[in-house]
Amino acid sequence: MIFACIIPVDTNNMTYKETQQKADNIASFLEKRQLKNAFEGVRALIEISKEWIFQEELDRIETTYKYMLQYMLEGADDPERDKVHNDLLRTTFELANKVAVSLHDKNNAALYYQNRRNQEINNTLSYNKLSAFIEEETTKISFSDLLKDKDSEGALQASKQLESLSSQLFYKVWLSNALNQDEAAVLRKLLQEPTPLQTQCLLVSALTLALKEFFDEEKLLLLFEAYGVREEEIRQRALIGILLVLYRYDQWIYLYPEVYNRLSHWMEHPDFIKNIHLIVRQFILTKETEKISKKISEELMPEMMKITPTLRQKITGFDLMDDAGVNDKNPDWMNLLDESGLTDKLQEINQLQIEGADVMHSSFSNLKMYPFFQELSNWFLPFSSSHSALKNGSDSYVMEIVHIIDEMGYMCNSDKYSLCFSMIQIPESYRKMMSAQMSAEISEMLKQEKEDNSLLRDKRAETISNQYIHDLYRFYKVHPRRQDFEDVFSTPLAIHKTRTIGQFIADRKSLLSIGSYYFDRNQLADARDIFIQLTKEEGDADAVLFQKIGYCEQMEGNIEAALAAYLKADLIDSGHSWTLKKVAHCYRILKKPEEALVYYQKAERLSPDNLSVQLNIGHCYLELKKYKDALKSYFKVEYLNSSGAKLWRPIAWSSFLSGKFEQAAQYYDKILSAQPEMIDYVNYGHTLLAMKQHKRAISLYKLAAEASQHSQEKFIQMMNEDTPELILAGIKERDIPIIVDQVLYALG
After folding, report:
1. Among candidates 69, 43, 70, 47, which has minimal Cα distance to 57?
2. Cα–Cα distance between 49 and 102 in angstroms, integer?
3. What does pTM read for this prediction?
4. How does DSSP classify residue 486?
5. 332 contact partners, CB below 8 Å, separation of at least 6
6. How far, in Å, CA of 561 to CA of 493, rounded?
7. How many Å apart are CA 118 and CA 120, to the nearest integer?
8. Do 367 and 422 form a contact (C-beta atoms < 8 A)?
9. Which of 94, 115, 593, 664 could make an SS bond with 655 (beta carbons 3.0 to 4.6 A apart)?
10. Which long-range contacts (CB under 8 A, 24 or more apart) does 589-595 make?
11. 522-558 pLDDT, tens digit each
């Protein structure tokens, strides 16, 4: 949906459906640069809207186009023709947007249009008045700070008023039509100092949300202006907004030379490209959020609940009055965590958090029901310990905790507010205890961080962008009216695929970096696409790329494509053991054991004592019905390192198929003394049947049929499938159904 990008609420409304279909058709015609058909589509939308002022604008655009066509037919040389054509495409695109918005304004039930209708009824302040009032309240606050009187009633009232004005500015920008130059100038001024940070942050978020609804060149240029300011909080928010908008409207940006010029200007700055890579990686990480939340809720928390009673016993077992070793941790706690497997899970979660993954989402997604979050603008508010909402009902302990939370770089702004509101709800005695504990831990953490100021500088941009992306994730995934918004996290931010930005990061180093990050995060389909793109570069012959492509294809279940990639890797770098084994594995999956055997034997020459290779050579011989050769390989593995039932099964089965029934029976005895499965009872039964030990065979078949629910049917199926092998072992085909009946009678 290009025009008036919202999520439909009443999909049974035929007018709405027709409107969207016509809008989609217009977008398609404009992408193909077919203006006549686009004009007809816009005209049809105007008919539905009954807003005839749009018809006048359409007529002017179409008249200009007809003049251009006439000059072209007359053979006139017009060096400006391409520019004129692009201008016509752009103005038609913008007109279609305006008509679509006017239609949605009338009856669309989405939150965005509800607010637009309410704003039209209410008399909102102009941009100039909002700017003047914000400046006035900022001056009051600055004066109070100068007098060191920031807790006075006047200062608190000024802070509340500034919060209200900032929120009003957010709504006005978010719900606005296309900005004119005067309005843009006012907002441009607000992006400069000394406008408060919270106001600027909300302004940037409002510009981003507004652009997600429909395109406006002035708003996008303002985001570029915001990236140029000094404050890193504003810069990172602005860049995230720029990337989301450019990705959303990639096919239209070429119609806006000024936007393209701004982008080209910033692309000359290494920090800009560096930050793009950083944000792309962070968006890639968000795809793991649901998986992390599931791991925490389904694996980590249940295990914690299991060991809690035991852990409590360990704790209460201490003499709490004994000062000796008072600061030591009980080693039994860690033993409990190790034994339960929790240590590894906790370390994994901790490592993901260090990398910037959103490990807090599951914990805080249910803490967005406080009144604070009923105000949509507050979902995008930077955390401030001085916010008025945190001072209501707060004591000194709460405010101390609030200041501590403010220093937590790994928590997003939204979650910090949630945590603070939760702290306000708990009893005072617990707040006092938590304040002391958190203060000690956070102070130590901050002390360690400040030991390396250069690291702090490098990490600041990363921390801010990560926090804001997590704020956006909360909004699009948790907000009560989230269905009314196009979820930016529902599709990957494939910036490298766009023609707007992609051309600037299409170099090998950039693509390899992004592809490798996808690969490391196991987002293999995206990684594969980038690696394939890299292999198409002229003169590129990188075996590692083809290895990774093969691995991605294999994990995606595309075995033939995986084999083709592995073979290319082997052609470039022949004799690589890992590649040889992968080629062989693919051949085995494709039921080509003879080809697989060739490659396993190549791998064997490189690693004669590799047990995995030897085992797979045996499997290939088994599939080729070369049972004696299979046994040689299996026995070699057993000699080097016995692997229990995993190895005994193929030895026993190969022995049976090669007529060595006594040998097969010996190995099946070993298997049954370990952890037998249904197939083991069946195969041992086959062996005993071949040895004329019918009663023992029937008893084992009976055990197989009793192994699990519905296993009688499975047993019969297995007997039918093994009929050729039974005949080969000397059992008459006509006797096999009789044996099956004997087993069924034995089962009762």
Report:
1. 43
2. 7
3. 0.82
4. -
5. 314
6. 26
7. 5
8. yes
9. 664
10. 589/559, 590/559, 590/560, 590/563, 593/619, 593/620, 593/623, 593/624, 594/620, 594/624
11. 999 999 999 999 998 755 678 999 999 999 999 999 9
